[in-house]
Automatic annotation (TrEMBL):
One of its GO terms (biological process) is phosphatidylserine catabolic process. The keyword Cell cycle does not apply. Keywords: Glycoprotein, Hydrolase, Lipid metabolism. Gene3D superfamilies: alpha/beta hydrolase (3.40.50.1820). One of its GO terms (molecular function) is monoacylglycerol lipase activity. Transmembrane segments: none annotated. It comes from the Eukaryota. Residues 128-197 form the Serine aminopeptidase S33 domain. It holds the Pfam family Hydrolase_4. This is Abhydrolase domain containing 12, lysophospholipase. It comes from Laticauda laticaudata.
Amino acid sequence: MWVRLRKVVIWLLGIYLAIPFLVKICPAIQAKLVFLNFVRVPYFIDLKRPQDQGLNHTCNFYLQPEEDVTIGVWHTVPTFLWKDAQRKDQMWYEDILTKHKNKNIAHNLNLFKAHSSSNRPRWGDSIGTPSESGMTYDALHVFDWIKARSGDNPVYIWGHSLGTGVATNLVRRLCERETPPDALILESPFTNIREEAKSHPFSVVYRYFPGFDWFFLDPITSSGIKFANDENVKHISCSLLILHAEDDPVVPFHLGKKLYNIAAPSRNFRDYKVQFVPFHKELGYRHKYIYKSPELPRILREFLGKSAHHHHHHH
């Protein structure tokens, strides 16, 4: 019995010690872990009833072509998954169309699908591996595509969790070229991927391992993954809303608060609203259930109403 137990312990210890070296030698492992969080089936959601769907780890776009219709566009599916997603979503697709019964939207959705599934050449990405620059590039394409079709309707960008990294990369780009969105909403955001990886529950096993940063964080950075929300917000000028639950076990509440504290005093927000909405831990929304909050529609109405007002006032 003891011999066997000793064997198991030695094995486990061996694996425990081997993993950091493996990650260091092969940084792609860390990159994969980061992006694994990302892969979800695409959906369109109705903002009037956000409780229908979570928006996990995604970066979403919203359009309001008419008072009672909101289209959300989800874009972070890596190209190689599109073929698969397209088969799966036929039913989902028809369901949404019958819900809206609007020719124009049906047309737009069709266009969007065609646009997204074309295998565009990416910036030096090997096929099938998502990368931060590739995602930003895709997001930019999608934004331009939407903007070209949205007329004077507001376009909001919403990121959740890792998707906040894509969202701030995108919005920073948009602000730098002076075509900002009407608002940016970050749900459960972090400051940057290093600080997030450090506080992620997965890292608890190694948090006190000597050289944690060198073994686990440097490979992420060296793979070109930064998702530097804290840097990006300094270059963003549009209304910003941050939502975070106090009991979030994946992205600790203090990181969302820290991001707000970096953004709020920034000069580029002086004409825009910057708002932080905490959700009390009693509510139990944790990392991905903020969308269940009955308060959310009111929060969004007030924030977007004010941001629209701000915007017109600004021009």
